[in-house]
Amino acid sequence: MTSTPFGHGGYGNSYGGGYGSAAQRNQYLADSVLSAPPARLLTMLYDRLLLDLGRAETAQQSANWPVASENLLHGQAIIAELISSLKTDAWDGADGLLGLYNYAFTALVNANIQRDPALTREAIELLEPLRQAWHEAAAAVPAAQPAAAAPATGRPFAAAGAWASPAGSTGGSLGFG
Question: Which of its termini does the chain have fewer beta carbons within 10 Å around, N or C?
């Protein structure tokens, strides 16, 4: 079997670890999050959010409720992070975006409780244009800008609260580490 960057095509890591070990993958993901500039972190959140919602919708349609629930809960955690990092006093549109996030969050809670893929689809259709817009905005930011300096809290990005793991920890709650 062939080897892939994140696994060994079924052979596992029994022959000495290789570059595809889970620990190395997790370290790479943690490093990529911790070193990413704020615009990239936001697009990473949106990408993972829409990935989770797509997985949840597929699981709901096949009545795989545990997988659907896991992905919906993860999506809710990402939206909660987006809400907590939104500075409503920083720009005029923030209150509207906050309302949209709250609506999507409630839709995902109800999609999980009611096992309703239509609610998951509604959230996807609401959030996908935002994901695209954030990607376009991030691409417009000059590449020469350095990443934001770490605040006094020691966290490299204030909105990365659910990603930032305590020292010695082996992973973030949003699945990036």
Answer: N
The gap between the terminal CA atoms of the chain, to the nearest Å, is: 27
Which residues contact residue 10 at a Cβ distance below 8 angstroms, ignoring those fewer than 6 apart?
Answer: 1
Residue 62, judged by CB atoms within 10 A of its CB (0-12, 13-18, 19+), counts as: exposed
Which three-class secondary structure state does DSSP give residue 17?
coil
Distance CA 9, CA 102 (A): 41
4 has which bridge partners? 7
The pLDDT tens digits of the residues spanning 112-161 come to 999 999 999 999 999 999 999 999 999 998 765 555 544 444 433 334 33
For residue 94, the SS3 value is helix
d(CA 40, CA 37): 5
Residue 16 to residues 5, 21, 22, 151: CA-CA distances in angstroms? Answer: 15, 9, 13, 39
Cα 83 from Cα 111, distance rounded (Å)? 19
